[in-house]
Design goal:
The protein contains 9 helices and 10 strands. It has 358 residues and is an alpha+beta fold. The structure holds copper (II) ion.
Length: 358
């Protein structure tokens, strides 16, 4: 490996010297360069002009192929109340950018080809055109102002955590490398917490003297009742994490030493989402791949793969350390009834502490 690197460096050094000598040669007078020198002639310009044209065609073909080929990887419909607005904004922005770049790239490369250098041809000196300048200034101003205004209103609405009536208050707690969730119990108020209180069974550092914290419940799965607004309070034990819930179009940084907030209303239960056409098709495709892989594994004497089943997940979206990739928590959106049943099986902080002492 070291020998290869030395040879590579030596080769690059020789190429650099050769290039420098060419630049020195170019710097000399045109006469010294002669007819076959390094200065571009008509044949060179013609070739370069055509390359510009081929390049833009190749770029469009690749772009269209990517849009078609990667369709399967687009996120499916949003499962939260604000999600469709967010998706419309993203779609409109993408469409506008696509139209503009399609036209401008085509023009840029076409003109590079059409007006490629030819001996004796002179460029036209064209100082300015007020009407043209007005058009290409006014249109972007109007379009951008519209996009920005819509974006600002959407942002303010999505980020306003105080707009809901009777929301469910939940804490999402991040640590290297996992998530915990804290439910606020019957008072719907989270008890104070601080990493300094972390001790024994008190894994989230809930203040044992705060009465609001006694009925708090710590869980390892995030269960949410459908159609009820949820206000998330995010806390980190160690480093910067990011709580990412792609199906709900939600993401918020989780910062040590402070509480960050986000709220949304889940609108589709896990069961309903699993039975959408998109998801059943996707899952059967994945399972077909797994079946093929299992055959290979079994032939080699290994254990076959389990079939895949879709679940909502909360993922970490900040590279926070060695096991970052594995930092996820299952999210279950269910009916109010099922949610209450599940909640009854959870243990309050008070009971957890009492059990730990015994
Ligand atoms: Cu993380």
């Amino acid at each position: 490996m070291t020998a290869f690197l030395i040879i590579l460096i030596a080769a690059l050094f020789v190429i650099a010297l050769w290039q420098i000598s060419k630049i020195v040669q170019l710097g000399k007078s045109p006469e010294a360069n002669g007819a076959d020198g390094e200065i571009a002639n008509d044949a060179d310009n013609d070739r370069q002009g055509k390359f510009m044209l081929y390049f833009v065609i190749a770029m469009y073909v690749m772009m269209i192929a990517c849009f078609i080929g990667y369709q399967d990887y687009f996120l499916p419909d949003a499962a939260s109340a604000h999600g469709s607005e967010y998706d419309s904004l993203l779609l409109l922005t993408t469409v506008v950018i696509m139209i503009v770049q399609f036209l401008t790239q085509a023009l840029l490369h076409w003109f590079s080809y059409k007006y490629r250098g030819r001996k004796g041809q002179k460029a036209l000196f064209y100082a300015d055109n007020d009407r043209l300048e007005f058009i290409w200034t006014a249109i972007p101003v109007v379009v951008l102002a519209g996009l920005i205004l819509w974006g600002l209103f959407s942002w303010n609405d999505i980020m306003d955590v105080d707009k809901h009536e009777d929301p469910l208050v939940v804490e999402v707690y991040a640590y290297q490398f996992g998530w915990k969730v804290r439910y606020s119990g019957s008072d719907n108020t989270l008890g104070d917490a601080n990493v300094r209180f972390i001790k024994g069974a008190n894994v989230l550092g809930i203040d044992p003297t705060d009465a609001d914290g006694k009925d708090d419940m710590v869980a390892t799965e995030l269960h949410l009742p459908v159609n009820r607004p949820v206000v998330f309070n995010f806390r980190s034990q160690d480093v910067l994490h990011s709580a990412y819930m792609p199906h709900f179009r939600a993401q918020m940084n989780v910062v040590p030493g402070m509480v960050t907030k986000f709220s949304f209303t889940p609108t589709v239960t896990s069961e309903d989402y699993k039975s959408t056409e998109f998801m059943t098709e996707k899952v059967s495709k994945i399972n077909e791949i797994r079946r093929q892989k299992s055959k290979e594994l079994e032939a080699a004497g290994d254990v076959a793969l389990d079939p895949y089943e879709f679940e909502y997940y909360l993922l970490c979206n900040k590279i926070c350390g060695a096991s970052h990739y594995n930092m996820q928590m299952k999210i279950v959106v269910e009916s109010e009834e099922d949610y209450n049943k599940w909640l009854e099986t959870q243990t309050t902080f008070e009971t957890t502490l009492a059990n730990a002492e015994n």
